[in-house]
Each structure stands twice: as C-alpha cells, then as structure tokens.
Amino acid sequence: MSSTVELTKENFDQTVTDNEFVLIDFWAAWCGPCRQFAPVYEKAAEDNPDLVFGKVDTEAQPELAAAFGIQSIPTLMIVRDQVAIFAQPGALPEAALTDVIGQARKLDMDEVRKQIAAQQAESGSAE
C-alpha cells in the first residue's frame, strides 16, 4: 500500500489545512526524473509516518500546478502550518531528501511567520 496521498484540487486545501506538515511531489507519468524520484519519495513517506506525503499529477491537476507556479517537474514543496517553507525542482537523492525533511522539522514556525509578516509589511508600504 502506498503511503502517499493523491492530491487534487478537491482535497488539496483540506489536506494542507488539516495537517501541520505536508510534503508535495509535483510530477507527471511521462517525466523520467519523476519516475526516478518516486521510490525515493515513497521510502521517505514510509520512514516518516507522522508526516503527510502528497503527490500532484500535473497532467491531471493543471490548476494546482499553475497555482503554485510549477514550471519544471518533479518539484518538491513542503508546507508547514499552511506556509510553503520549501520548494525546489529536481529529483532529490535520498540523503538530500532526508536532510531537507530534517531541516524543515527544525524550523521555528513562529519565526517564519514573523519574517513573512515583516516582508508583507515592507511590500505593503512600498506601494
């Protein structure tokens, strides 16, 4: 049984809202690097059962890919507390994926929210 969740425009918002930590793999069946990354992603999902691992088929869900500005696949995105804290195109090797997950787990989300608020305040006052 797969430990990843197929994300669609119907369940995406709910999944991200209901879960504190969601990893998202934007992929397509025709994409060679996506197929190479899939077993690495599945293994990470098995190794981190406390996290939600989602997959977005960019062919079946073009609106989601467009909403996040996905221009190359595979792209890995990590959302914590409804904030996208990581997005990177390319198939990560297992060690790099493990490292990224570890770093994302250690992030102080209060600090991240403060930085976002500060950036929004700056961009708001620049207009």
Overview of the structural elements:
The relative contact order is 0.17. The protein contains five helices and five strands, in the order E-H-E-H-E-H-E-E-H-H. By secondary structure, it is of the alpha/beta class. Strand 2, helix 2 and strand 3 form a beta-alpha-beta unit. Helix content is 46%, strand content 23%. It comes from Streptomyces galbus.
Radius of gyration over all CA atoms, rounded: 15 Å
Tally of helical runs: 5
Given as residue ranges, the uncertain stretches (5+ residues, pLDDT < 50) are: none
User: Quick check: average pLDDT?
Assistant: 93
The global form is globular
Q: Give the spatial strand order of the biggest sheet.
A: 1-3-2-4-5
Helix content: 40-55%
**Which assembly state applies to the chains in this document?**
single chain
How far apart are the first and last residues' alpha carbons, in Å?
51 Å
SS elements, strand count: 5
Classification by helices and strands: alpha/beta
User: β content, as a range?
Assistant: 15-25%
Helix and strand run: EHEHEHEEHH
Sheet bearing the most strands, described?
5 strands, mixed
